[in-house]
């Protein structure tokens, strides 16, 4: 900003613009509140049917989010403009005061060409009017005036240019719509941008040759600004995708200069998390520079990078940085499609990822080396349920779900091959996110929303591919599939109890997957308890034909019994049980297995606890190294569970049961006989599905 611009500046128009923005902010705040508390709240509670529920609710949710972002962006713009306006007005006042002090010392300031200025004497002594005394002054007074004016102009220029930089950067965050970046003043925003540039510059100039002190400073910057959208975008774009990959490849090498990796080994895990958080947040930006970053990263991930220890693939590097952070859904799917395509080209990807020398690229925990890129990628998917749903439903250019759930040749990536496979475990968690819409079974969720058609499709596909694995069903995915079936507990209950098999899920696949889940005692307990929740919820909501809920309860219990029998009977397909069945049952499952977002609610939770406690008393749960070989013995050991269910049903439907028009449902005998018969029918249907007749 030059001298005359500030001196003659009138900021009234800027003040008017700020007033106008304040009006926009207030209006958008009202619209945001209406959209959130009225429109969206009603949409969430609306009992819409089928496709209308999905489309309308999703549209309203997105619209409410846009109003929120619009209000945030408008308030940020208003606050930055007001902050800048107040500073410029202050600098103009400071300039006027400096000029007045100069006049008292016979000094004045005039602008020169090119935006500069010069300090001269206001009245030259030789040209002073007769009798007029020139104010006392010295050369130092002129220098002080010059320095004061220059300092004020520098600060005004800084205020003006940084405001422009911040405003442009914020607007660029969203190519369409509005940015959610929120800043109360210009200084906070410009500080984030400058710190990002500082961090990126340190990596580009020093890389893994930086000193431990510089590394600690870098880690501190990432930790402090990992949730700042301007820092995230500026850091990623200033560093660039290639430099990002090269830096992590070099840093993870054990022979880095200055012993950086060795001396900072205990900090590398935190640094990896911080870097992942920053990069993940950066991908949420819609700026043109960030879109280009993402496209280049997908391409560069398919290339090899040299380290002092050996070559590694870009996929191996980047996937380890994706273990933490909220990555953009579109980026995840483009990256994932390319990763699966590359693995299928390799035919034996485990040989490529696991070839000598074997680098260590992961420092989060000590369970794995990070050589399998699918582990980090699938972990990122589990943190982004919508992206996971898209990934598991993608059939072109290849079927992603079939690859990760059925066909992929996994390999051991742990120091000791004595535990679960981390990549398979990540696949199970990503699958659960894909079908349920939440990142994990214990993820905070205020209410259970209906599944989208896309989630339904992902569930059916996951069931199909996992059923096709047969006895090669990955043990790491048993609990995730039990939770997934719990997420669909109403649908699964309908399918298990349906004598005609007409409820959405394939009966053969459902039996095979239930059997494989039942090979592990804890996973079986999870599945059974989830189904208890569905059964009790059905009893509480079925008022038109109460007898149906009792019949379905027995049939589902029979189905589950047959699945467990198939898994634990050592005379059927060999001994399919794992070591968990040889341990004593404990009561920790009571009160702790029903997912917190389950639609059943607290009342049903109490009923589930009662049934589960009774179920644990049944002899069928005392299986040890020798399983029951006789169906009859197995089915007779369910009485406590069935009695508990019958008692809950009767308490809910006593008036209906005691009506003379409804024979066979008496409290003392009829209700027990009815549910027992239904359980037998469920056993027989399940036996037929399992091919055991």
The total of helices stands at 28
User: Given the helix and strand composition, which structural class is it?
Assistant: mainly alpha
* Termini separation: 90 Å
Percent helix range: 55-70%
Assembly classification: single chain
Query: What's the alpha carbon Rg, rounded to whole Å?
Result: 34 Å
Shape: elongated
Question: What is the residue-mean pLDDT, rounded to a whole number?
Answer: 82
Spans of at least 5 consecutive residues whose pLDDT stays below 50 are: 47-52, 587-600, 624-629
Find the count of extended strands (DSSP E, 2+ residues).
4
Identify the strand order in the major beta sheet. Answer: 1-2
Write the layout of secondary structure elements.
Elements lengths: L2 H5 L4 H34 L4 H55 L2 E5 L5 E5 L17 H34 L13 H21 L5 H14 L3 H11 L1 H11 L8 H4 L1 H18 L5 H13 L3 E3 L4 E3 H7 L8 H18 L2 H5 L19 H10 L2 H9 L6 H8 L14 H15 L16 H15 L10 H10 L1 H9 L9 H11 L3 H21 L4 H23 L32 H17 L13 H6 L2 H19 L12 H20 L4
Antiparallel strand pairs: 1-2, 3-4
What this model shows, in words?
With 693 residues, the protein is an all-alpha fold. The protein has 28 helices and four strands. It has helices at residues 3-7, 12-45, 50-104, 139-172, 186-206, 212-225, 229-239, 241-251, 260-263, 265-282, 288-300, 314-320, 329-346, 349-353, 373-382, 385-393, 400-407, 422-436, 453-467, 478-487, 489-497, 507-517, 521-541, 546-568, 601-617, 631-636, 639-657, 670-689, and strands at 107-111, 117-121, 304-306, 311-313. The chain has a two-stranded antiparallel sheet. A two-stranded antiparallel ribbon has the order 3-4. Helix 6 (212-225) packs parallel to helix 10 (265-282), helix 23 crosses helix 25 (601-617) and helix 24 (546-568) packs antiparallel against helix 27. The longest helix is centred in the first third of the chain and has 55 residues, at 50-104. The N and C termini lie far apart (90 Å). The model is unreliable at 47-52, 587-600 and 624-629 (pLDDT under 50).
């Amino acid at each position: 900003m030059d001298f005359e611009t500030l001196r003659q500046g009138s900021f009234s128009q800027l003040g008017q613009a700020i007033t106008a923005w304040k009006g926009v902010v207030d209006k958008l705040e009202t619209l945001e509140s209406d959209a959130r508390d009225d429109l969206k709240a009603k949409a969430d509670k609306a009992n819409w049917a089928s496709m209308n529920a999905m489309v309308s609710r999703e549209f309203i949710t997105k619209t409410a989010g846009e109003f929120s972002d619009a209000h945030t962006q408008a308030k940020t713009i208003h606050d930055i403009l007001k902050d800048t306006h107040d500073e410029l007005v202050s600098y103009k006042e400071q300039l006027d005061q400096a000029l007045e002090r100069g006049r008292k010392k016979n000094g004045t300031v005039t602008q020169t060409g090119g935006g500069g200025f010069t300090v001269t004497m206001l009245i030259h002594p030789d040209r002073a009017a007769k009798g007029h005394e020139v104010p006392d002054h010295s050369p130092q007074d002129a220098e002080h005036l010059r320095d004061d004016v220059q300092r004020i102009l520098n600060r005004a220029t800084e205020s003006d240019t940084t405001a422009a930089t911040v405003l442009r950067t914020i607007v660029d965050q969203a190519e369409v719509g509005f940015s959610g970046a929120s800043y109360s003043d210009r200084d906070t925003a410009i500080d984030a941008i400058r710190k990002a540039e500082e961090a990126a510059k340190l990596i580009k100039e020093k890389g893994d040759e930086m000193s431990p002190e510089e590394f600690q400073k870098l880690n501190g910057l990432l930790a402090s600004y990992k949730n700042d959208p301007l820092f995230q975008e500026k850091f990623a774009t200033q560093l660039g995708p290639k430099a990002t990959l090269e830096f992590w490849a070099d840093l993870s090498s054990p022979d880095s200069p200055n012993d950086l990796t060795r001396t900072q080994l205990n900090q590398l895990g935190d640094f990896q998390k911080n870097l992942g958080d920053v990069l993940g947040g950066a991908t949420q930006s819609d700026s043109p520079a960030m879109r280009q970053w993402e496209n280049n990263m997908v391409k560069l991930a398919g290339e090899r990078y040299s380290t002092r220890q050996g070559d590694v693939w870009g996929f191996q590097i980047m996937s380890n940085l994706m273990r933490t952070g909220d990555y953009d859904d579109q980026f995840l799917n483009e990256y994932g499609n390319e990763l699966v395509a590359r693995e299928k080209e390799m035919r034996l990807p485990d040989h490529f990822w696991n070839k000598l020398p074997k680098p260590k690229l992961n420092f989060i925990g000590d369970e794995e080396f990070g050589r399998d890129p699918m582990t980090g990628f699938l972990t990122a998917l589990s943190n982004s349920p919508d992206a996971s749903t898209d990934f598991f439903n993608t059939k072109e250019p290849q079927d992603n779900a079939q690859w990760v759930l059925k066909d992929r040749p996994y390999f051991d990536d742990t120091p000791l091959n004595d535990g679960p496979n981390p990549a398979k475990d990540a696949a199970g968690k990503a699958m659960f996110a894909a079908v349920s819409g939440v990142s994990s079974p214990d993820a905070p969720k205020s209410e259970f929303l209906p599944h989208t058609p896309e989630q339904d499709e992902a569930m059916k596909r996951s069931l199909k591919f996992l059923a096709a694995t047969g006895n090669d069903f990955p043990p790491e995915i048993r609990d995730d599939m039990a939770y997934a079936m719990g997420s669909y507990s109403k649908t699964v209950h309908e399918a298990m109890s349906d004598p005609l098999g007409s409820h959405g899920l394939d009966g053969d696949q459902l039996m095979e997957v239930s059997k494989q889940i039942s090979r592990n005692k804890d996973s079986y307990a999870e599945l059974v308890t989830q189904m208890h929740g569905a059964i009790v919820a059905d009893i509480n909501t079925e008022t038109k034909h109460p007898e149906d809920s009792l019949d379905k309860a027995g049939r589902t219990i029979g189905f589950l019994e047959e699945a467990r029998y198939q898994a634990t009977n050592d005379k059927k397909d060999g001994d399919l049980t794992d070591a968990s069945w040889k341990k004593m049952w404990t009561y920790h499952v009571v009160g702790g297995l029903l997912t917190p977002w389950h639609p059943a609610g607290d009342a049903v939770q109490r009923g589930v606890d009662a049934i589960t406690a009774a179920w644990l008393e049944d002899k069928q749960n005392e299986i040890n190294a020798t399983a029951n070989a006789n169906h009859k013995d197995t089915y007779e050991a369910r009485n406590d569970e069935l009695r508990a269910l019958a008692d809950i049903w009767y308490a809910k439907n006593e008036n209906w049961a005691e009506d003379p028009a409804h024979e066979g449902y008496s409290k003392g005998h009829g209700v027990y006989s009815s549910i027992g018969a239904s359980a037998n029918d469920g056993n027989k249907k399940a036996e037929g599905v399992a091919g055991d007749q």
